[in-house]
Specification:
- Chain B: Pfam families: Radial_spoke.
- Chain B: It is found in: Cell projection, Kinocilium; Cytoplasm, Cytoskeleton, Flagellum axoneme.
- Chain B: One of its GO terms (biological process) is motile cilium assembly.
- Chain B: This is Radial spoke head protein 9 homolog.
- The complex is a heterodimer.
- Among the domains of chain A are: 46 residues, no CATH class; 289 residues, no CATH class.
- Chain A is 35% helix and 11% strand.
- Chain A has 13 helices and twelve strands.
- In chain A, the strands form three sheets. Chain A has an eight-stranded mixed sheet, sandwiched between helices. A two-stranded antiparallel ribbon of chain A has the order 5-8. In chain A, strands 6-7 form a two-stranded antiparallel ribbon.
- Chain A is flat.
- By secondary structure, chain B is an alpha+beta fold.
- Chain B folds into three domains: 85 residues, no CATH class; 48 residues, no CATH class; 110 residues, no CATH class.
- In chain B, strands 4-3-2-1-14-13-12-11 form an eight-stranded mixed sheet, with helices on both faces. A two-stranded antiparallel sheet of chain B has the order 5-6. A two-stranded antiparallel ribbon of chain B has the order 7-10.
- In chain B, α3 crosses α6.
- The chains are: A alpha+beta, B alpha+beta.
- Chains A and B meet through α4 and α7 of A and α1, α2 and β11 of B.
């Protein structure tokens, strides 16, 4: 008996509790399965070199056992590398991998087109004009960056170039980077633009002609129909007309694109019905302009209209400027527009930044607020009805005496001070801060809106700007309560002729029958009596 | 996100318009390493910023050797002086869910339940506790809720060692572009809830060292994450729609990832109506 070797039974490894593998997997079946799994994993072929670890290890161990070098464990990595090199392998696969064109490269290609400078002719024309409508996006971005607001410098520069493209393509008078609205699949970059006069009128005429064409077609169809079902007496309330391009909520034209480098799309003007509906719903933007907006009350339009309506609401609620920067023109004309116009005040002296932060009366709105009707200037819907009556001259229509007299809606006038903005519960409408407390000489006054989270404004001396970065929704402290569907409509007016009553029960019917028979019996008796008398 | 990658990372999450001013960035670059030294953290993450009505809270998180262990959270007003926050208790979290409205910006502000939610106030009174809650407690609980609900990491970024502790995976090379577009490739970096409910077939495919967390696939409601590829796929940005303001970024095929929160600290309970 000498020292037992591990492979001899006397070593004790075959005893149930002394095997070196005991603590791992006691059950032989699962151990076999584990071994199979491990071996299968080792036999997996590598996709780059076509070898597998099992074979490679077998080759390495074979080489070591054949050559038996000294200090094998120190040079094992080199041995492995040598085995790999020594193995001459011909690439058996005749198929070659196609170089994968990632979408990253395509996007980079598109963005690159932004950087292409136009040919020299246009460049000369620009110099003659002098003032270009292109805004200095980088300067605005710098000021907002002092407050920690804004996109990365790269993205700001791409937007700058994209706006330059827009200005050169469309006839634009003034242009401004309005902001960015985030969406589920893609985001929107929005530019606020005023087109040169004369350009917008052409578009209005085009739509009118199209409208007339449609009417003629409809009339022909109506004459063909015969035996029409009875017309309903329901008259929908008159549609409130949208404001003219260039005034009120449609003062500016908006162009959007998903990413700088993609083409700019013009948003259609907004109608009051869309604004009224947009106030009642709260939906995320998907990023596709033609996506439908599925909601209740049903939104009259698709995502482009919803986007335009939200932009109008945000502009009306949060576009501000230092008080006194804009003033009303000196001529006092009583137009229906009523103070729609404002001009820059050449004698404006900017108050110091500390004052702009402390008191909100140093700021004023310069966009007209939107009334409940959905317009900035109130239109009496009764007057609209009367106009319709004169044009159509159809059957007599009831006068609108039954309609409640609608009071004229007024909103706060243009250039109201911010201190008159109502807060929500106990939260003020605006939060004002200076960009830095450490260097007050060069700080910038920043205002954040609490009603429209994402709307910011800054002012520093004579420069000021508004911007929006966000999801495009108003802040509501209460949860969103969607409008409930209206109660079920009555099918018919219930009058004495046709009221719904319960079906008569069996007793009632029998009693009725008995009464009828009694009546008939009485009549027979009377007739017999009369006959008897006649006789 | 990691304190060391903060400058590069802020440029990648700036798509939402929120970021930090140069002053704050510079201050963070100094104070976060000092935090690491003072508290002996192994990793420091800049968690983000909660906007109050009158001020903003900047939050940082520090990790010990086990990344899954409880994190220490600190807050600051100027990104220079940090104060430690106590760990969140279940009671704090339950009470916070009853509160609505913005943060005020003052940690000693007291929310009075009697005004906000009278029923809850009565309940608390009956149990002998005061129906008030300090804003500091609300802050702690809100950060805990956000981390639990929407704090995410890519699959494979963390490994669970056989001893049970969680560490960064040094062999993580980033998700491929195809994987990065799928919600399945991202995990909630918190205690898993759904893992044990998976079928045996699914569990067989899981790798216990990397698949030990819940993935985003089965988040309720469906569609509560917005996945966008910016610059044609150079960066993958995930934005949470449940807690508006949480942005996660990852550059595919690289080790860069992180999430940050810039927002008002309110849950978006209107989410089902908005989708």
């Amino acid at each position: 008996h000498g020292p037992y070797q591990p492979h001899e039974p006397g070593y004790g490894l075959d005893q149930p509790e002394y095997s070196p593998y005991e603590d791992d997997i006691p059950d032989p079946k699962t151990r076999m399965l584990a071994i199979h799994n491990a071996k299968a994993y080792l036999l997996k072929t590598s996709t780059t070199s076509g070898q597998n670890l099992y074979d490679h290890l077998a080759n390495v161990l074979t080489k070591i056992l054949d050559e038996q070098p000294t200090n094998t464990v120190d040079i094992i990595e080199n041995i492995s590398k040598d085995v790999k090199c020594a193995r001459f392998q011909k690439k058996m696969d005749t198929l070659r991998d196609e170089y994968e064109i990632l979408p990253t490269f395509e996007a980079a290609e598109k963005c690159k087109t932004l950087f292409i400078k136009e040919n020299e002719e246009n460049a000369v024309i620009e110099e003659e004009i002098g003032q270009t409508p292109l805004p200095n996006v980088m300067q605005t971005a710098f000021y907002f960056e002092q407050a920690g607001i804004g996109l990365s410098k790269d993205e700001s520069y791409y937007i700058f170039l994209a706006l330059k493209n827009l200005v050169s393509v469309q006839p634009i008078q003034t242009c401004r980077f309005w902001g960015k609205i985030l969406g589920l699949e893609r985001n929107y970059i929005i530019a606020e633009v005023q087109l040169r006069e004369g350009e917008e009128e052409e578009e209005a005429e085009v739509t009118e002609e199209e409208g007339k064409g449609m009417d003629e077609v409809e009339e022909d169809e109506e004459k063909v129909k015969e035996d029409e079902p009875p017309k309903s007496t329901y008259k929908p309330p008159p549609e409130i007309p949208k404001e003219e391009n260039g005034t009120g909520a449609n003062k500016y034209v908006y162009f959007v694109c998903n990413e700088p480098g993609k083409p700019w799309v013009k948003l259609p003007p907004v109608t009051p019905a869309q604004i009224v509906c947009a106030r009642k719903i709260k939906k995320f933007f998907t990023g596709r302009l033609e996506a439908p907006v599925v909601s209740f009350p049903p939104f009259p339009g698709n995502e482009a209209n919803y986007l335009r309506a939200q932009i109008a609401r945000i502009s009306a609620g949060t576009h501000i400027s230092p008080t006194g920067f804009y003033q009303f023109p000196e001529e006092e004309e009583e137009e229906e527009g009523g103070g729609d116009a404002y001009e820059e005040n050449p004698e404006f002296e900017p108050p110091p930044v500390a004052e702009m932060v402390e008191s909100l009366s140093t700021w004023a709105h310069h966009v007209k607020s939107i009334l409940k009707q959905g317009r900035c200037v109130w239109i009496n819907p009764q007057k609209l009805e009367e106009k319709d009556e004169e044009e159509e001259d159809e059957e007599e229509e009831e006068k609108s005496e039954e309609m409640d007299e609608q009071q004229e809606e007024t909103g706060p006038p243009l250039l109201t001070l911010l201190s008159e903005d109502e807060g929500i519960k106990d939260i003020p409408a605006w939060t004002a801060q200076a960009s830095t407390n450490l260097i007050p000489e060069h700080s910038v006054a920043i205002l954040q809106s609490n009603r429209w989270p994402g709307a910011y404004a800054f002012a520093s001396g004579r420069t000021f700007e508004n911007i929006y970065f966000g999801w495009g929704h108003k802040y509501g402290p209460e949860n969103h309560n969607p409008t409930l569907p209206p109660p079920v409509q009555a099918e018919y007016p219930s009058g004495p002729g046709n009221t719904e009553t319960r079906d008569p029960t069996l007793e009632e019917e029998l009693a009725f029958k008995a009464a009828k028979e009694a009546l008939a019996a009485e009549e027979e008796e009377e007739e017999e009596e009369e006959e008897a008398e006649d006789d | 996100m990691e304190a060391q990658c903060l400058p590069a990372a802020l440029a990648l999450v700036a798509g939402g318009g929120a970021g930090l001013s140069p002053e704050k960035r510079a201050a963070l670059g100094l104070s976060l390493p000092l935090l690491q030294r003072d508290y002996r953290f192994e990793r420091v993450w800049f968690w983000g910023c909660i906007q109050g009505v009158r001020g903003a809270y900047y939050i940082a998180e520090g990790f010990g050797p086990d990344r899954a262990a409880h994190r220490r959270r600190l807050y600051s007003f100027n990104c220079l002086d940090w104060s430690l926050l106590t760990p969140a208790t279940r009671e704090m979290v339950a009470r916070t869910e009853l509160l609505t409205g913005r943060f005020q910006g003052d940690p000693s502000f007291e929310y009075n339940f009697a005004e906000i939610n009278p029923e809850a106030a009565e309940l608390l009174f009956d149990r002998g506790k005061e129906p008030v809650m300090k804003e500091e407690a609300r802050l702690i609980a809100t950060i805990e809720l956000i981390d639990r609900a929407v704090g995410i990491v890519p699959r494979g970024a963390f490994v669970k060692t056989p001893l049970g502790s969680v560490r960064e995976n040094r062999h993580f090379e980033g998700l491929s572009l195809v994987e990065a577009k799928k919600l399945r490739s991202y995990f909630h970096f918190t205690e898993p809830v759904n893992l044990k409910n998976k079928t045996l077939l699914e569990k067989a495919d899981l790798d216990p060292s990397t698949d030990f967390l819940d993935s985003l696939e089965h988040d309720i409601p469906q569609g509560s994450w917005s996945v966008q590829l910016e610059k044609g796929g150079a960066v993958v940005v995930l934005r949470s729609l449940l807690w508006l303001g949480l942005t996660f970024y990852h550059v595919p095929m690289t080790k860069q990832y992180g999430y940050i929160y810039f927002g008002t600290g309110e849950k978006n309970l209107d989410l089902p109506f908005m989708l």
